[in-house]
Specification:
By secondary structure, this protein is mainly α. 69% of the residues lie in helices and 4% in strands. It has 18 helices and 4 strands. Strands 1-2 form a two-stranded antiparallel sheet. A two-stranded antiparallel ribbon has the order 3-4. The longest helix is centred in the N-terminal third of the chain and has 43 residues, at 82-124. The radius of gyration is 22 Å and the shape is globular. The relative contact order is 0.17.
Length: 468
C-alpha cells in the first residue's frame, strides 16, 4: 500500500504513489503559493532559487532537497533562465502540465508588468527616479536572502569534502579565471561521474538530504512522477510547442511584412532564447551589441538603464529584452501607433523568449525523472549540483559588486580575470540596507516578503529625501 503524507497546511492527504494521482497539493493552493513566490523573485537567478528553496523545500515541505537539486541540475544544462525553468519543473511535479504552466507563467508575470510600466514611464516622462528609489531598497535586501540560500543549499547538498571542493573550484573558475559557464557545468558533470567510479562513498553520503529535522516532503526522492515518457507524448509536445512559439512571429510577418521591426525582433530574440546558456549575463553582451549597433533600437546608455531596471524588478534578468523591444518598436512602429507598436514588440519578444522554457521542461522532465535511478547520470548531476552552489555564490558576488558600488573594473593578471570595485564609488545607503536585511533575515528570521517590504520602504524614503 502506498504511504500517505498530509499537506503541511492541513489540507487533504496526498499519496506518495504519484503514479495514481495528478495533484500532489491542491491546485488552488499551488496557484496561491506560486503567486506569492512570483512577488519575491528579485536578485536574478540566485535570489529566485533562494526564494523557491526556502518556500518549497524548507517551509512547505512540498519537495525534498535532493529532488530539488536534481531538477535544478537539469535546468542548469538548458538554455534560458534556469530559475524559471526550475519553477516549471517543480510545478509539473506537483500538479502536472497545468501546474508547470501556472508556475512558469506566474514566475515571469510580475516582472513583465513591472518592466512594461517602467518602460512606459521612461518613454513618456523619462523620469523613473521614484520607482527606481523604491527598488533601490530591494536590491541590497536580496543579498541577505541570497547569502542565506548559499549557506542552506550548501549545508544540505555538500555532504562530503569532495563536493565542497568541487563547489569552491566552480566558484573560483567563474569568479577568478572567467571560465565559460558551460565549461564549468560540463567539467562538474565529468568530475561527478569520475568520483562515482573512484570514490562511491562520496555519493553514499550525498544520497541523504543532509541535516534536516523536518517532516518528510510530499515529493520525496523515491517515487516516480505519474506521467511516463513516450515518443508519442514527446512528438505531440514538440509539434504543439513549436507552433505556439512561432505563431505570433508568423502573424506579424503576414500583417506587417517580413522586414518589419516586429518580425525582426521576433526572429532575433527567438534565436537568443536558444543560446542563453549560463544565464542572461552570458548573452546580454551580444544582445546589446546587436540591438545598439546593428538594429539601432536604442543607445548604449539606454541599454545600461534597461539592465538596471531589469535588475530591480522581479523575474529573470533576461526580461531586459522586453525593454529593448519596447524602445525599438516605439521608434519604428511600422505604420502603427507608436504606443501600440511598443506594446506589441515587447509582448512578442517576451513570448518568444519564455515559451521555449516550457517546451524544454515538458519534453525532458519525464526522461530525467526516469533516469534518477541511473547511477552514472545521478553522479553527474550530483557533480553539477555541487557546482551550482559555487555558481549561486558567484552570482551573489556579481550582484553585490554592482549593488554596493557604482562602477567596477576588470583586471587581468595572467590567467586571473577579476572584477574589482572602485572603492570611491561605494553606496553607503545600499550597504546600510543590506546590513538591516541581514539582521532581519538571520537574527530575527523574518519572512522574505516582510524583509523586502521594510527595505523597499527604506529605499522609497531615501529617494524622497534625495539620498537614493
Amino acid at each position: 500500500m502506498a504511504a500517505t503524507h498530509h499537506d503541511r497546511d492541513g489540507d487533504r492527504p496526498t499519496e506518495a504513489g504519484l503514479e495514481s494521482i495528478r495533484d500532489v497539493v491542491p491546485f488552488g493552493k499551488a496557484v496561491r503559493t506560486w503567486f506569492a513566490i512570483s512577488l519575491q523573485t528579485f536578485g536574478g537567478p540566485a535570489g529566485q532559487i533562494a526564494v523557491m528553496q526556502r518556500a518549497l523545500v524548507e517551509e512547505k515541505r512540498w519537495i525534498g532537497q535532493k529532488r530539488f537539486n536534481h531538477a535544478l541540475s537539469y535546468c542548469m544544462l538548458l538554455p534560458g533562465p534556469e530559475a524559471q525553468q526550475l519553477a516549471v519543473y517543480i510545478g509539473w511535479l506537483l500538479n502536472g502540465t497545468r501546474g508547470g504552466l501556472v508556475a512558469g507563467t506566474l514566475f515571469v508575470l510580475p516582472g513583465v508588468l513591472a518592466l512594461l510600466a517602467l518602460s512606459v514611464m521612461y518613454v513618456g516622462w523619462g523620469d523613473t527616479t521614484l520607482v527606481t528609489g523604491l527598488f533601490a531598497g530591494l536590491a541590497p535586501a536580496v543579498l541577505a536572502i541570497v547569502t542565506q540560500a548559499v549557506l542552506r543549499v550548501g549545508r544540505r547538498s555538500l555532504t562530503h569534502p569532495a563536493l565542497i571542493a568541487l563547489a569552491v573550484a566552480s566558484f573560483a573558475a567563474l569568479a577568478v579565471f572567467a571560465v565559460p559557464f558551460p565549461v564549468v557545468i560540463a567539467a562538474a558533470a565529468l568530475i561527478g561521474w569520475l568520483l562515482a567510479r573512484a570514490r562511491p562513498e562520496v555519493f553514499t553520503t550525498a544520497s541523504s538530504h543532509g541535516p534536516d529535522n523536518g517532516p518528510p516532503p510530499l515529493v520525496s526522492d523515491d517515487v516516480l512522477h505519474h506521467e511516463p515518457p513516450t515518443w508519442r507524448r514527446a512528438l505531440k509536445i514538440l509539434l504543439l510547442g513549436v507552433v505556439v512559439w512561432a505563431l505570433p512571429v508568423v502573424c506579424v510577418a503576414v500583417f506587417t511584412g517580413t522586414n518589419s521591426v516586429f518580425t525582426t525582433q521576433g526572429l532575433f530574440f527567438s534565436g537568443t532564447a536558444l543560446v542563453t546558456f549560463g544565464g542572461a549575463y552570458a548573452v546580454l553582451a551580444y544582445v546589446a551589441q546587436q540591438a545598439v549597433q546593428t538594429y539601432g533600437w536604442l543607445t548604449p546608455g539606454e541599454m545600461v538603464r534597461g539592465l538596471a531596471l531589469a535588475e530591480t524588478t522581479p523575474g529573470p534578468l533576461i526580461m531586459v529584452v522586453q525593454f529593448v523591444a519596447f524602445l525599438g518598436a516605439y521608434r519604428d512602429p511600422a505604420g502603427l501607433d507608436p504606443w501600440a507598436a511598443a506594446f506589441l514588440g515587447a509582448l512578442i519578444t517576451t513570448w518568444v523568449t519564455f515559451v521555449p522554457c516550457f517546451l524544454f521542461i515538458f519534453l525532458g522532465a519525464p526522461y530525467v525523472e526516469r533516469l534518477r535511478g541511473n547511477h552514472a547520470l545521478s553522479a553527474a548531476l550530483t557533480g553539477i549540483t555541487a557546482a551550482v552552489v559555487g555558481v549561486i555564490a558567484n552570482l551573489a558576488l556579481y550582484f553585490a559588486l554592482h549593488t554596493f558600488f557604482t562602477t567596477t573594473r576588470a583586471v587581468d593578471w595572467g590567467p586571473l580575470h577579476l572584477q574589482l570595485p572602485d572603492l570611491a564609488t561605494i553606496r553607503p545607503l545600499a550597504v546600510g540596507i543590506a546590513l538591516i536585511a541581514a539582521v532581519l533575515t538571520f537574527r530575527f528570521n523574518w519572512s522574505v516578503l516582510r524583509t523586502l517590504g521594510i527595505c523597499a520602504a527604506i529605499g522609497l524614503i531615501a529617494a524622497l529625501a534625495g539620498l537614493a
